[in-house]
Amino acid sequence: MAARADFETDEGAGGADVRFSGRLTLARLGDLPARLDALGPIATLDLSAVERIDTVGAWIVTRAVQTHGATVTGASEDAQRLLAALARDKSEYQVQRRPVPMWMRMLDQLGSASVAIWNELIGIVDFFGAMIVALFVQIRARRRIRWNAIVTRFQTVGVDALPIIGLMSFLIGIVIAQQGAVQLRQFGLEVFTINLVGRASIRELGLLMTAIMVAGRSGSAFAAQIGTMKLTEEVDAMRTIGVSPMEAIVLPRVAASTITMPLLGFYASICAIVGGGAFCWVGLDIPPLTYIQRLREIIPMTDFWIMLIKAPVFGILIGVTGCYEGMQVRQNAEEVGRRTTSAVVAAIFLVIVLDAFFAVFFSSIGWN
Amino acid sequence: MSEEEIRDEIAAADAVRPEQHDYAIRIRGLVNRFGDVVIHDHLDLDVRSGEILGVVGGSGTGKSVLMRSIVGLQTPAEGEIEVFGTTLATIADEEDSRDLRRRWGVMFQGGALFSTLSVAENIQVPLREYYPRIDQKLLDEIAAYKVEMVGLPPDAGPKFPAELSGGMVKRAGLARALALDPALLFLDEPTAGLDPIGAAKFDELIRELADTMGLTVFLITHDLDTLYATCDRVAVLAEKKVIAVGTIPELLATEHPWIQDYFNGPRGRAAADCNQTHRAG
């Protein structure tokens, strides 16, 4: 086994004389640095018995030279080269960030988070405006609408989402019917379960759940796709060729999500009603014909209009936030992940806030 | 730390002894293929201890794949790769492979710095992994002198990779590769994407570090100036093999058309001329 790094000391006139032996390398240092630090003043450092030395060993020696003003003797040619390379002044080299007091950091975080949220809102509105302008420019210049791009997005946003949205809504219909029935049974009004399922599905839940699913499926995909295109400078390449990224990338995606949302929302409502109907038939012995008959009596046409008014708005919102966050990607790949997350979070949050506004508005104009 | 722990650690350090081998890397009959595409067909290559070996070859000749095979990121279909007398593929024990890994440093083309850590923390990652006993003060000092060694500015230590320029990322990547004072250094296109001044400085830095620390360097490059400025020998990859290894004058004496085109093309001549005047002046 090769000798580990070690040293012996002799008390001299101006302090200890330290004689190193073995290999002064990172792997063989052991507790040598600590023992060396524990020594008092050091006068000389003798390296003549050292077999090998690396930069860490040389640094330990250099440190002793700098703190004690010691002199080095017996250094081999290799050791001298290393010592010379390390002798340059490094006092101004920083390693850690300057510490900031806790309260200041908290204030800083609160402040920058608030500014970030505000900037995000302004950014989304700004982006929406720019998109509308781009739309009018495209129409006025009579440029061809990119049907191919839009139809491709139809496929991914709409058709591909049908199974998952259908299943989800069907199950939610069952849950509402089941939970509603339990409560209504206490008053002997189980038959009103149909009212609950029918109206909740058409007016609120079908569309809301669809919006959440589309935000998670497609809003995130928009952000990730566009973000990656930004990183690889595809978007910049488009601009230099003279193709507007708004027209080529953003408009087709937003158009697709805007048009598919009402369709998906209606489909989801129907699936939820079917799920509720299935439960009513099996659990409450209400035959499907009665169920449908009753639905026709209790669901007002206004509920359907409410859904159809809300759906495209949600679609625009999801498309715009997804594309906006994607366009904000800069610097590195990590940003793509971060922006994708915030696209989904922002879209779902804004959809629910808007939904609350819609609910109050439609009630106050008498569409109960 | 107890006496016993120190002894274990030192025993582990003895498993691989770079200074006892004349050849840092020996490759025999290496075959790499992706599906039907054969990248290397029975390739042989020796890297002598203490030399800077430049590896050149056209795009797609498998220079990076060769490096990835040596460091164990790519399992070869056939063949043997020995690094300091140890064959990575046959090491079953995770501990033993760690001993070997500790002996080399790899600098990737894009720097491959960990983006969530600062430059200083990036340099400290290998140190913490292999020597958890080192106290924070010494770790910080080591990081500071490595930062200085690779020529980064004094305020670079606490910065995050995203805040650095391309040249600084490369230097930081080099500092991390040198963190454990390795005997063998792999550099994948160290000067790609740097401006000529930055590239020349980087060449100087590599030469200087290799001389100071007694490094063996495996250097993949496209840059003719780097070859002239830093390399002791050059290996040429073509036709799925190493077709020639030697000093640049030796390579110039060979008849192979690719080598002639490479060194005697307009760029090759310019680099050679520049090197001549540089040496003369």
Q: What topology emerges from the helices and strands here?
A:
The complex is a heterodimer of chains A (368) and B (281).
Chain A: E1 6-11, E2 16-24, H1 32-38, E3 42-53, H2 55-68, E4 71-73, H3 77-86, H4 102-140, H5 147-158, H6 162-185, H7 193-231, H8 234-241, H9 245-284, H10 288-298, H11 301-327, H12 333-364
Parallel strand pairs in A: 2-3, 3-4
Antiparallel strand pairs in A: 1-2
Helix pairs in contact in A: 2-3, 4-9, 5-9, 6-7, 6-9, 7-9, 7-10, 7-11, 7-12, 9-11, 11-12
Chain B: H1 3-13, E1 23-34, E2 37-48, E3 52-57, H2 63-70, E4 78-83, E5 86-87, H3 94-101, E6 104-107, H4 119-130, H5 136-149, H6 166-177, E7 184-188, H7 196-213, E8 216-220, H8 224-230, E9 233-238, E10 241-246, H9 248-252, H10 257-264, H11 266-280
Parallel strand pairs in B: 3-8, 3-9, 6-7, 7-8
Antiparallel strand pairs in B: 1-2, 1-4, 4-5, 9-10
Helix pairs in contact in B: 4-5, 4-6, 5-6, 7-8, 8-11, 10-11
Radius of gyration of chain B: 19 Å
**Are there runs of chain A of 5+ residues with pLDDT below 50, and where?**
none
What order do the helices and strands of chain B follow? HEEEHEEHEHHHEHEHEEHHH
Label the overall shape of chain B: globular
